[in-house]
Automatic annotation (TrEMBL), chain A:
Organism name: Aspergillus avenaceus
InterPro entries named among the record's database cross-references: PRELI/MSF1_dom (IPR006797), Slowmo/Ups (IPR037365)
GO cellular component terms, semicolon-separated: mitochondrial intermembrane space
The protein, known as: PRELI-like family-domain-containing protein
Annotated ranges, domain PRELI/MSF1: 1-230
Recorded superkingdom: Eukaryota
Automatic annotation (TrEMBL), chain B:
Record-stated family: Belongs to the TRIAP1/MDM35 family.
GO cellular component: cytosol; mitochondrial intermembrane space; nucleus
BP-aspect Gene Ontology terms: phospholipid translocation
Key words, A-Z: Disulfide bond
UniProt name for this protein: Mitochondrial distribution/morphology family 35/apoptosis
Transmembrane stretches, start-end: none
Species of provenance: Aspergillus avenaceus
PANTHER family hit by this protein: TP53-REGULATED INHIBITOR OF APOPTOSIS 1 (PTHR46403:SF1)
Molecular function, one GO term: phosphatidic acid transfer activity
InterPro entries cross-referenced by the UniProt entry: MDM35_apoptosis
Pfam families: UPF0203 (PF05254)
Length: 266, 80
């Protein structure tokens, strides 16, 4: 098992950060996120906390380093290049915290990646703790910290994953593979551990980049929120989405417009 | 707004998302946690989505993943 940890401070109020979190796709740094759906959402009647479960579909290439370690056929042609991520969040606006957990739903036997984030309102000294403090972004200078912990766990080579019944093991999305390590000799179990470590390390290296990108994306959304409110975020999104959906959309328009000015210069 | 995995649900999803954003920023974050004015849109969106999830065979995978997720979730709540 490997861990990645990161602490970061947003120069935005806690309510703004949570709103940006729900609104963060699409943004210019999220081209790999194809779709986002809300699977479940409710306010706990006792605690008044908002629970949300979302399903994201992301483009993902299995890193070539991992691909080399996989048996032929796995991670190759049958891999669609897309992966499902389940994200679960709880917000408590009164206590000023939000917790999220995201995990991959497939390939958990090869590498299970669980990202946990804790967002925490940082009270400013002397600031009044009142309902006004919950307004979106009226308190300049308010900060929100986020602690990110990502856990990588490879069960590669354990149990039936490498066994004969490939289809069966792929259908088992629980990642609950039985460990038949005792049957193996010392050297083969050593190399299995080595492969697992390698896979986990590749995961850590990719995550460094992904965590940075997700912060940049959040900051874009937060800046749009500050300067244009929700309308500003939606407008920015529309443009981001156009850039993704219409492959040649914005470029084509620039090109056409460019030609038009050539033809009929006003 | 982010696209739905089911293109046929995009319209209702956009309506629901818009409703949620308004409710979340104007009511929920300001302490009015009991209102649920987006409930009707959400159930329409969900029934559209669930059909597609079933067709794609994602529903079972979701259920399994949510089971392991909820364990972690309850662990979170205990700690706080």
């Amino acid at each position: 098992m490997k861990f990645f940890e990161n602490l970061f401070t947003y120069d935005y109020s806690f309510p703004a950060v949570t709103l940006a979190y729900f609104l963060r796709y699409p943004n210019p740094y999220s081209r790999h996120v194809l779709t986002t759906d809300v699977i479940d959402r409710y306010v706990d009647p006792k605690t008044h906390r908002l629970h949300t479960i979302r399903l994201h579909l992301k483009k993902s290439k299995v890193p070539s380093g991992i691909l080399k370690l996989l048996p032929k056929g796995m991670g190759g042609s049958d891999h669609s290049g897309q992966s499902y991520i389940l994200e679960s969040t709880v917000v408590d606006p009164k206590e000023g915290w939000m917790q999220s957990e995201s995990r991959n739903m497939e390939w958990t036997g090869i590498l299970s990646v669980v990202e946990k984030q804790v967002y925490q309102r940082q009270p400013i000294e002397g600031a009044l703790e009142s309902l006004e403090g919950l307004a979106l972004d009226d308190k300049r200078g308010e900060q929100t910290t986020v602690k990110t912990t990502v856990t990588f766990r490879s069960r590669f080579g354990q149990g039936k994953l490498l066994g004969r019944k490939k289809t069966e093991s792929i259908a088992d999305h629980n990642g609950e593979y039985e460990d038949d390590a005792p049957k193996k000799g010392f050297f083969s179990s050593l190399s299995t551990a080595g492969i697992q470590r390698t896979i986990e390390l590749i995961g850590v290296n990719r995550t460094r980049d992904a965590v940075l990108k997700s912060k940049q994306g959040m900051n874009v959304v937060l800046e749009r929120l500050r300067s244009g409110g929700i309308v500003g975020v939606l407008e920015g999104m529309r443009q981001d989405r156009e850039a993704i959906v219409g492959k040649e959309g914005p470029w084509k328009r620039v090109w056409v417009r460019g030609h038009h000015t050539d033809d009929d210069d006003n | 707004m982010a696209a739905s995995i089911a293109p046929e649900c995009n319209d209702i999803k956009e309506k629901y998302d818009t409703c949620f954003l308004k409710w979340y920023s104007e009511k929920y974050l300001r302490g009015n946690t009991t209102s649920n004015e987006c409930e009707e849109l959400f159930s329409k969106y969900k029934s559209c989505l669930n059909k597609v999830l079933k067709e794609k065979g994602i529903d079972q995978m979701l259920e399994d993943a949510r089971k392991s997720n909820s364990e972690v979730e309850s662990e979170y709540i205990r700690r706080t």
